[in-house]
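User: Is it possible to get a 3D structure for a protein together with its bound compound? The compound here is nicotinamide-adenine-dinucleotide. I've pasted both below.
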Amino acid sequence: MKAFVTGGAGFIGSHLVDTLIKQGHTVTVYDNLSSGNKEFISQHLEHGACRFIKADLLALKKVEKEIAGHDTVFHFAANPHVRLGETHTDLDMNQGVVATYNVLEAMRRHAIKKIVFSSSSVVYGETTELSLPETYGPTLPISLYGAGKLGAEGLISAFCGTFDFQTWIYRFANVVGARGTHGVIVDFIEKLRKNPHELEILGDGKQCKPYLYVSDCVDGILFGFAHVSEKMNLFNLSCDTTTTVTRIAEMVAEEMKLNNVSFNYTGGIRGWKGDVPRFQLDAQKINTLGWKATLTSDEAVRKAIRDVLHANL
Ligand code: NAD
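Assistant: Yes, that's possible. Here is the predicted structure of the complex:
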């Protein structure tokens, strides 16, 4: 495979790049390093195992030039911060929807037909059901980030319908692990490094979500890609357990060997506007094909805390 990985210098993208290279594929990483880190792929660059293009997906002509000659696109670049939409209202429109359009249009111009996309559980919005299968609808996101993901899914589906593209769309749970640069674990560790006595926790701490370890995530993506070949392949990617925010705080304090940390809750059921406080993704569709996460949500969180604390790359 000749893989073009957008966001390949990011947290999940760089782990995907590791595996693709290990499997012997040719890889180009296209990343503007806005939230990624070239260090994450430096071992491949040193050995000439991967080509790196530092550029923005909003520059369509550049994407069109660099994408030529590839056969499969893994589109992982996006704004990763769900919360930023509150203050930067055009961010997910540009990084989620316009960037995805540019990728698809560049692919169309070069007759590249396969796209694997990193979507998110947040497309489901706030629902009455707790466990959500891929067939759940209507999908009504409550964050601008979620709207960007759903818009991107819609565009990908339309390019499949109109130009015979083929896609594998994955709606991830919260992904955690080595090279994690954002999210609740990183936030708690940073806060406790500054003040080991007190920890501010957004919301009431009862927010409860599934956490998927990054190697399970990459494994699931490539498993689905290898095992199904419909025109539209849509999967939830998750373990089948959840972890509360307070439990994460306790585990971070334990791993940092801090006793008597006072947890100060900002209150309310959600961490911020647009946060979906409780959900579980139903991963039966991909489980039935033969893939299952190897770590539970608590195990993934514990392992990720250790990775981030010890800066395991
Ligand atoms: P990340 O920030 O580490 O990776 C995103 C990468 O995209 C970064 O390297 C960034 O520099 C690059 N990028 C952003 N905008 C770009 C642009 N306009 N042009 C070129 N490169 C650009 O985040 P991540 O957590 O690894 O997320 C990867 C993908 O998975 C994202 O699409 C994210 O929305 C999605 N996702 C992540 C999670 C999670 O829990 N981490 C959950 C659901 C979905």
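The chain has two domains: 2-175+212-237, 177-209+241-278+296-310. The radius of gyration is 19 Å.
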